Amino acid sequence: MERRLSLQVLFVAVLILFGMGKISHAQTAKPIELKLSHFMSPMHTFHVYGFVPFSKEVEERTKGRVKITVYPSEALGKAKDHYDMAKQGVTDIAHIVQGYTPGRYPLTSVMELPIDTPSGEVGSRVLWGLYEKYLKAEYPGVKVLSLYTTDPGQIFTTKKPVKTVEDIKGLRVRSPGPQQTAMLKEMGASPLSLPLPEVYDALQRGIADGVMTPTSAIKDAKFHEVTKYQTICNLFTIPCALVMDLKVWNSLPPDIQKIFDELTGSRMSEIIGKAVDQTAVLSLEAAKTAGVQTYKLSSEEMKQWASRVKPVNDKWTEEMESKGLPGKKVYEEAIQLIQKYSK
User: Fold this and answer.
1) Which of 36, 130, 201, 243 is least buried, going by the fewest C-beta atoms within 10 A?
2) CATH number of the structural domain spanning residue 127
């Protein structure tokens, strides 16, 4: 009897110790620590309204099992290298701008074309809508967490307003990428290729007469301090992505992968799209306060501008098709999705 009682006590003690061991292990297990790298300032819209809240949500949803540290301002590497940084494990997660490495994401660049994308939210939803069907093959070696765009690109000038497509002729205008360079050439401007950090000084010193940029960048880059005129023409958006090292993604437990999927994808596309649109509104207010005069093209003028830059769209489609890529289908579907999401 006593022996049986002793065995029962021993069995209970083992269970208690085993349970305490599990609790102790759960309490002391180290979280999965991930690095998220980007190249904008800690004040940038993407950082403040995109990456920081996302990192906090991941930690909350995983109950501390995953912690993401955000590294802004090229702390881990140059802007153009961020895709390879994620692919090679320099960082676990990276924000990329596809236009920084022209030709690497050919079909993605459809969003850089003058297709009258009305907002960052619409652009972001369109880009994510094209991903599964057409763009997935352009991102080998990484898990694409989300795709999104900036708000539409406009023209800001220092010396004279641009009210007609002829007014931009001869002006030296900073271009953010190859498609915008092609547009500026079609309009008779002289495109300048300058890194974003150098643009403010170029405008201030008269090296550049203007800059082609999303309105949200005015507040983020303080261009309203060195420009006098803005022309609202919705000429392009800049596509971007948040990507993760595929090896890191595959190492995550399925339940954590599920949380990442729920917090990224179309959800993140819309969040960032809405954020850049709101920043664009604030930028317009800051520009107005600073004395920047804004001119919005009429629908008739928009048609004239579209006609002038149409060769850029035609050439893009032809180049894609010549490479065996479905450029025509992607272009047409992008237009259809813009119309759908603009309603």
Assistant:
1) 201
2) 3.40.190.170
* Helix ranges, the chain (H): 2-28, 45, 52-61, 82-87, 120-130, 178-186, 196-205, 216-221, 246-251, 254-263, 265-289, 299-322, 327-341
Contact assessment for residue 318 and residue 253, using Cβ atoms and an 8 Å cutoff:
no
Please report, in tens digits, the pLDDT of each residue of the chain (343 residues total).
Answer: 444 445 454 444 444 444 444 444 444 579 999 999 999 989 999 999 999 999 999 999 999 999 999 999 999 999 999 999 999 999 999 999 998 899 999 999 999 999 999 999 999 999 999 999 999 999 999 999 999 999 999 999 999 999 999 999 999 999 988 899 999 999 999 999 887 778 999 999 999 999 999 999 887 788 999 999 999 999 999 999 999 999 999 999 999 999 999 999 999 999 999 999 999 999 999 999 999 999 999 989 999 999 999 999 999 999 999 999 999 999 999 999 999 999 8
CA–CA distance, 185 with 333 (Å, rounded to integer): 26
Under 8 Å CB-to-CB from 36, ≥6 apart: which residues? 51, 55, 68, 69, 70, 71, 91, 92, 93, 94, 95
Torsion, Cα of 314, 182, 215, 121 (10° steps): 30
Residue 283 lies in a domain: no
pTM for the whole structure: 0.88
Regarding whether 79 and 66 lie in a shared domain, the answer is: yes
Q: How many structural domains compose the chain?
A: 2
In 10 A of CB 289, how many CB atoms?
Answer: 9
Same domain? 68 vs 45 = yes
